[in-house]
Every structure is written in structure tokens, then in C-alpha cells.
Design goal:
Blueprint lengths: L1 H5 L2 E4 L2 E4 L16 E9 L8 H8 L4 E5 L1 H4 L6 E9 L7 E7 L6 E10 L5 E2 L4 E2 L45
Antiparallel strand pairs: 1-2, 3-5, 3-7, 4-5, 6-7, 8-9
């Protein structure tokens, strides 16, 4: 349970679900969510960075590294490394980072580009400075127009009240 709550958010059926421990007096009002976790792929990681510390170092350019996916945890170099990171609402979502490596032939330090792909980019709002919705849907946005309230559809008879005939008796339905 603690591992699940540590994620702060998960994605189910394409929708993000935000998690928090239950506390006495908890309300069901929207909370301001400042941090969420999301999976990233570090693409073309140099062999010298295929260690827990090396991958953690690269992923920290996005946010706080939390864990590695199952394949990446074997630390066998692949096309990409899967890392779960905790990000702040104002994450810049860099598309790449440059890491220094020593060139085998010259012995000089050169910079290698490591691409960053995001499994999903959570909705974030600069007005609330939080996750959960976009600027365009924020009530703090001066240009926000609240959508009209939806009219409630008439409820169907759920068996509590039976049809009655003109005299007030139960209706007998016959086929024609």
C-alpha cells in the first residue's frame, strides 16, 4: 500500500488517478496537487551510464527518480531505460539532456545526447500552480467562462411507483 501511495498518481484507462492517504476529517474537495509521478524513457543512454546512479543522474534532469522498470532494473543496456520520476507542476519536460562521456579513441570528454520520451504528460495549470486541469479550464484564469449547468434528465420510473389507470388502480397491459 505504501508503494502505491508513494506513486502519488497512476494512470488507469487513459485517465490519471491522484492518490493520497486517508486521514480523519478528510474532505472530498479538490486538493491542490503539486507533484505527480510519470514514466519516462531515456533513449540512447551511453553504456557508462547503465548503472542505478547513472540512470538516476540522467532522470534527475526531469524530476526526482523513484524507480526503474523491470527490464531496466536488470541494468543490461537496451535501446531505452524506463524510469518513474516524480515531477513538479512546472516541469519543463526537456526532450533531451547532454551527458559527458570519455571518447574511447581520443580520451577526450565529449557530450552525448540522451533523448527523453514521456509516457504521458499530466494536465497542469499555471494559475493554480498545480496538476489536475489546464489553464483554459481554471476558474482563476481571467478569461475562463464557466460552462452552463447541465439540466437533469427526468428520472425513469424505477419500480417504486407503478402505473395507474384513470381510476387509480394498477394498469393491466395487454398485447394488441
Amino acid at each position: 500500500m505504501k508503494k502505491v501511495l508513494a506513486l502519488r498518481s497512476i494512470q488507469i484507462g487513459g485517465k490519471r488517478l491522484y492518490l493520497a492517504p486517508w486521514t480523519d476529517g478528510a474532505s472530498f474537495q479538490k486538493n491542490v496537487i503539486k507533484k505527480v509521478s510519470t514514466w519516462i524513457k531515456l533513449v540512447d543512454v551511453p553504456h557508462s551510464y547503465w548503472t542505478r546512479e547513472g540512470l538516476k543522474h540522467i532522470a534527475s534532469a526531469v524530476g526526482l527518480p523513484l524507480s526503474l522498470d523491470k527490464q531496466t532494473a536488470t541494468l543490461n543496456p537496451m535501446k531505452y531505460a524506463g524510469v518513474l520520476v516524480e515531477i513538479q507542476y512546472d516541469c519543463a519536460y526537456p526532450k533531451a539532456v547532454w551527458v559527458p562521456v570519455i571518447d574511447d579513441e581520443t580520451g577526450e570528454v565529449v557530450k552525448i545526447r540522451v533523448g527523453i520520451d514521456y509516457s504521458s504528460v499530466p494536465q497542469s495549470c499555471s494559475f493554480c500552480r498545480a496538476f489536475g486541469h489546464y489553464d483554459s479550464r481554471c476558474e482563476k484564469n481571467p478569461s475562463y467562462v464557466k460552462p452552463p449547468a447541465k439540466e437533469k434528465a427526468p428520472q425513469k420510473n424505477k419500480g417504486k411507483e407503478k402505473e395507474k389507470d384513470v381510476a387509480g388502480g394498477p394498469v393491466e397491459k395487454t398485447r394488441l
